[in-house]
Amino acid sequence: MRFVSTRGDTAPVSLSQALRLGVAPDGGLFMPEAIPLHEPSKFAAGRPLAAFAADWLRPFFDGDPLAGELDAICAEAFTFPVPLVAPFGDDVGLRALELFHGPTGAFKDFGARFLMACFDRLAGEEPLTVLAATSGDTGGAVGCAAVGRRSSRGVILYPRGRVSPFQERQLTCWGANVTAVEVDGDFDDCQALVKAAFADPQLSAAHRLTSANSINLGRLLPQVAYCAHAAFEAAALGGDGRPGFLIPSGNLGHGFALLLARAMGAPVGPVVLATNANRTLLDWHQSGRYAARPSIATLANAMDVGAPSNFERVAALGDGAAEVTVELVDDEAIRHRIAADYRENGYVWCPHSAIAAEAWRRLAAPARDERLWVAAATAHPFKFAEIVEPLIGREIEPSPALAAIDDRPTAKQQIAARMPELAALLDQQRVAA
Ligand SMILES: *Cc1c(COP(=O)(O)O)cnc(C)c1O
After folding, report:
1. In what residue span(s) does the Tryptophan synthase beta chain-like PALP domain sit (predicted)?
2. In the structure, what pLDDT confidence band is assigned to residue 187 with cuts at 50, 70 and 90?
């Protein structure tokens, strides 16, 4: 299997090269040259996720140096449960796919751990520098997945004042080979800095830069696998065998991963991309034209994205992006959904997951009732305790992993959103290492 750039100006590369490069040299994103098709009858429900994932992803690794390592990589990355729970009881046709039982309490743990497991097997002598921009959750997951590894060091850029107190703690608590950098700007500024760093061949080579954002295919592959796994599990629960999915979307990595899983043969029905008040995707869906906008801050901060980088990949899917709708849920509706679902059913959503739950409520009754729907529950509500607790009127228990983070010391660097400052910081960090 070979991988090509969405912009068509890069010679095809192997999977290892695509992971190592992060972004294609022409500025585009890597896509598989052809979408592999699975025979759905070979993928029954009830299989453990790690084994399922390795089989689902095998075509992407075909002919790559990492092919022989795929089972081990999946065994390393998929070590925590992904329950499909019935938040409103078995009789109501909504399931929550709880993706937050990993070490940093968000689905980003899958991608970060999978990617780092790949880097461990690719790095060679000198460590890679994993440069990541985060709107809140990626950075913590990448830091946690990178800390203590010899193959990589992590440099994580996050927007000042835009992440929750717990998220900041989780970004800044790793130390050792992980550096947290607070940028005076928003997430799109952080993302632009990362892209600019990759676009500088000298800087990129000197630091062996690579990306751990969802622009890197290695972040998305494990998501393709768990989306497919969840689809088979949900399909086996009844309905018409093609469950619908509601995906809280920001940078559109998750949404793309689900659409790719569907294009490969996973039993996925209609897909709702649910966004916060950042309306780039809604405008695209309504007008057919894509125009990036400045991002605005919302309660679901990991989705505060005005220029979703994976849009390019979704567009490249062509027909694969059929049966997709967009639902916009503003802060007031997020608050209402968290409070109402707790009061009526005792289930606690994080602000991102509440967007998916609200999008389900807004489906027209026939569409809602004709099939089972799966809402991606993308983060543990404890990560957003200062938002959620006042709405539900009680304290949220952290998982043991999240509680442990509260005890770690923190440290950060600070820069303006300017390339020379990032370059200087990278040099200085390398001398220190
Ligand atoms: C990153 C994130 C999202 C958005 O996912 P994308 O792949 O960027 O669309 C949603 N919810 C949470 C909790 C996240 O951390």
Report:
1. 98-365
2. confident
